[in-house]
Design brief:
Keywords: Cell membrane, Membrane, Transmembrane, Transmembrane helix, Transport. Helix content is about 75%, strand content about 0%. It has about 260 residues and is mainly alpha-helical. It has one domain: MetI-like (MetI-like fold, Orthogonal Bundle), CATH 1.10.3720.10.
C-alpha cells in the first residue's frame, strides 16, 4: 500500500515520524554546533524531550494556561467581528468594498509594528492577568482569514434556494439566516480551523512585548536570555502542539456538523 492509499491519521503519523528523523539527523550532523549558543542552536529531539521531562507539567502549565486565555479571547473577539462584518455585507451589499478594505488593512499591517502601539494604548496587564495586547494581536491575526473565508462560503449559497426565499417575501436577512448560514458553514469552519493556531501565534507575539510574568512568549524570552536552548525548543514544541490541538478541534467540529461537505 502506498502512502497515498493510507488513511488520514496514518499519513499524519508518517509525516510526524519523517520530520522527527530529519530533525534528528540534521541536528546531529549538518547543523551541529550551528549558532553562537554553547552546544549549538538546534538540539536533537532527544535533548528537547529530556528538557520537557525534566521541567514537567508544573513548569509548562502556568505559561500555557495564560497564553490559551489570551488566544481564546482574541479568537472570540476577532472572529465575532469578522462574522458580523460578513453578515452586514450580505444584508447591505453596498458596503462590501469598504469591508474588504478593512480586512485587507488588518492583514497588511505588520504585527511587530502595531504591537508596540497597542501596548502603549492598552497598557501592561495587572499582576497575574492575561495581556490585553496579546488579546488584541490574537484578534488581528484571525480577522482577515475569517472575513474572507466566511464571505466565500456565505456567497456560495444555492441560487434557487435564495430565489424561493425571495419569492415568499423573504428579505436579505431571511436569506442569510435560512440559506446562506447553512451553505456557508463548511467554509466558515475551515476559516476558524486556520484561525485557531493563528490566534495562538498572535498571543505569543503579544507576550514578547513584556508586562507579563507568565506565558509561553515570556518563558521563551527568559529561556533565550539565559541561553537555555533546549528549553526554548521545548516551549516552541509545546506551543506547536497546543496550536495544532486548536486546529484539530475545529476540524473535528467541521467533520461532525458538515457531513455533506465530506461527501461532496
Amino acid at each position: 500500500m502506498t502512502v497515498r492509499g493510507l488513511p488520514g491519521w496514518a499519513t499524519g503519523i508518517v509525516g510526524v515520524v519523517l520530520v522527527i528523523v530529519l530533525w534528528w539527523l540534521g541536528a546531529a550532523t549538518v547543523f551541529s554546533g550551528l549558532g553562537s549558543m554553547p552546544g549549538g542552536a538546534i538540539p536533537t529531539p532527544g535533548d528537547v524531550w529530556l528538557q520537557l521531562w525534566a521541567d514537567g507539567p508544573a513548569f509548562y502549565w502556568p505559561h500555557v494556561s495564560v497564553t490559551v486565555q489570551e488566544a481564546a479571547r482574541g479568537f472570540l473577539w476577532g472572529n465575532s467581528l469578522a462574522l458580523l462584518l460578513s453578515g452586514i455585507v450580505l444584508v447591505l451589499p453596498g458596503v462590501e468594498k469598504i469591508a474588504r478594505q478593512i480586512a485587507v488593512i488588518t492583514d497588511c499591517i505588520p504585527i511587530v509594528a502595531i504591537g508596540p502601539i497597542a501596548y502603549i494604548v492598552i497598557g501592561a496587564p495587572q499582576r497575574g492577568d492575561p495581556s490585553g495586547t496579546a488579546v488584541f494581536l490574537a484578534a488581528m491575526s484571525v480577522f482577515f482569514t475569517t472575513v474572507v473565508g466566511s464571505l466565500v462560503g456565505l456567497k456560495a449559497a444555492d441560487t434557487a434556494s435564495l430565489d424561493i426565499v425571495r419569492a415568499y417575501g423573504g428579505s436579505r436577512f431571511t436569506q442569510l439566516r435560512l440559506v446562506r448560514v447553512v451553505a456557508g458553514r463548511p467554509s466558515v469552519l475551515t476559516a476558524l480551523q486556520v484561525a485557531a493556531p493563528a490566534a495562538f501565534l498572535g498571543a505569543i507575539l503579544g507576550e514578547y512585548l513584556g508586562g507579563l510574568e507568565r506565558g509561553l512568549g515570556f518563558a521563551m524570552l527568559v529561556a533565550g536570555s539565559s541561553a537555555n536552548v533546549d528549553r526554548v525548543w521545548s516551549l516552541a514544541l509545546v506551543a506547536g502542539l497546543v496550536a495544532g490541538l486548536g486546529c484539530a478541534v475545529f476540524a473535528l467540529i467541521a467533520r461532525v456538523t458538515t457531513p455533506w461537505s465530506r461527501a461532496a
